[in-house]
Amino acid sequence: GAIERAFPDLPNQQAVVAPTGNPKIADYQCNNAMIISGRLPQPPKEKPAPAENGQEKPKLSKAEQKKLKAAEQEARNKLQNKVAQQIIDALPESLPMIAGRPATAGGAFINMRVDTAWMGQVVQSMLVEGIDKWAPRLPHKRAVIDFSSPNVAKEMHVGHLRSTILGDTLARTLEYCGLEVVRLNHVGDWGTQFGMLIQYIAESRPGGINDTNIEHEDLGQLQALYKKSKERFDADPEFKERAKAAVGRLQGGDAECLQAWQRICKASRQAFQAVYDRLGVKLEERGESFYNPFLASLVEELAGQGIIEDSNGAKVVWVEGQENPLIVQKADGAFLYGTTDLAAIRHRLQTEKGDWLIYVTDLGQAGHFDLVFGSAKKAGFILPKDDPGHPRIDHVGFGLVLGADGKRIRTRSGGDNVRLSELLDEAKERCQTTIKDRREDIGEEELDMASSAMGYGAIKYADLKNHRTTNYKFDFDAMCDLKGNTAVYLLYAHARIASIVRKADRPEVSDGSLAKSASIDLEHPAEVALALHLIRFPEALEDMLEDLTPNRLTEYLYILSDKFNTFYTNCHVIGEAQEDSRLLLVQSVAVVMRQCFHLLGLTPLYRI
Ligand code: ARG
């Protein structure tokens, strides 16, 4: 794919992509040299003669071993060189994107010098035609992404924050690739805990079970309510019985219980929404309760298929290769988290018509999803690999978020649980200071906008830049740093480009006509390096999509900003003979930066 995009008009692509594997373009020594690497054939290894009559084969001396190795290496080089030469010979006489002729470079390498005029045209086309078509094409049509998914009456914790940030980026990226994306918030809004909560409200509130104030409580108050009811539940067996009875009434559709449950959900929903609004994340709530009506029939159906087994009265599904089964119904008749997920996977495939399902949760749930996916396969919800309707299903697991000291993360208010809203507040405040230091005259409204963009962006970026499976430290000092791999640094780089364009004060730049009339001439090595990195944008997306790892995209963006800064230190723009060309170049950089920002959920700033 990368090769195809880099060489769109190549008449005989097969010739270049002849080696197997997935060739990648890579920088190579000189700025505008590229190598295409792939796996070239290896000469057959000479088999040592079998030892005769059990006799020990004579050992080679060190020098002889060395000689043998060198000979092997030479044979390999020769063969690879031959293939490389064949590839070169198969190339057409002239290739617009390559300056001069490609040449073998020893072993499995072919050197090609990218034609800078061609590269300038590609960069310019980003301005004239936009970069929508740079998105990788994927075989899927409709992705269903399950992310964020906090639990009602509990604080949304940093794990949910990480899921929200990662899921949002994946959703944005797949959308950019042309897929329809359904963003599902699988809120934990159903289960036995609600009997306990409702019963506690009924017994402790002045308004009893009908207390409408619940609706207006914040997450801290709800969490406290949860804690108290749980304490009571554990300490008082009679309360426990009454709570169980309340679950029964709730599941039986008792109006008062349902209303109390809805009030708790509503209060939580408002608190969650406040976080989503600040982060600019959109989600469709489809909590566990949504699937409740399907559970009983689902279990019956599985039983009918003969894949349910009994385990001490509980109903379970065994999945090959797994140590434990998936419990779908407890001995007391209750359904579980996994039953709901089984109903949900079926709904997402059959009703929602997703052909790519993604679940973004902490790595701790990997085993759970193995069981759910395995059971769904066994039940026939997931069509087999050789069926054209076979979906792609991914559990996108992630590591822990730790405090700066490497221990549990805490906020200023202390307490058991870190409040997400406080994390957001602090990041924003810190960025406010940074911005004010540099622009004392900034107005209230702009300051608020810019510090939100920077502060929330800093949190998101600090998360996304880590490989998702690693644990990382949540460190305000590091993430709000002006220098280094931070959102703040990147947003400043973008604002610098905006300021160059503003200073140029040329209407042809803003109305796009310059991009159609002037051309980009890449002369200075820093310009060439910048342009070369710019056109590798699709490769970064491909890398990210391979393992659903947004850190591949942040890496690309960081290097882009870095190459821009090197360019800017070395090349003046305004008032130079190259002004037109350089204005176009930096505009293209800004276009790609903004696309990356968009995918990462960052809001670009134009003046800071
Ligand atoms: N509510 C769960 C939790 O907080 C996450 C749900 C993830 N999605 C799912 N379909 N199981 O851990």
From TrEMBL:
User: Broadest EC class?
Assistant: ligase
Q: Does the keyword Ion transport apply?
A: no
Q: Where is this region: Disordered?
A: 38-76
Q: Which Gene Ontology terms describe the biological processes this protein takes part in?
A: arginyl-tRNA aminoacylation; post-embryonic development; reproductive structure development
Task: Report the EC code(s) recorded for this entry.
Answer: 6.1.1.19
Q: Which residues form the DALR anticodon binding domain?
A: 490-608
Q: Name one GO molecular function term.
A: ATP binding
Keyword annotations for this protein, in alphabetical order, are: Aminoacyl-tRNA synthetase, ATP-binding, Ligase, Nucleotide-binding, Protein biosynthesis
Q: Which residues form a coiled coil?
A: none
Give the record's GO CC terms: cytoplasm
Q: What sections of the protein cross the membrane?
A: none
The Arginyl tRNA synthetase N-terminal domain is annotated at: 1-114
**Highest taxon of the lineage:** Eukaryota
Q: Where is the composition biased (Basic and acidic residues)?
A: 44-76
What family name appears in the similarity comment? Belongs to the class-I aminoacyl-tRNA synthetase family.
**Protein name (record):** arginine--tRNA ligase
What range of the full-length protein does this chain span? 119 to 726 of 726
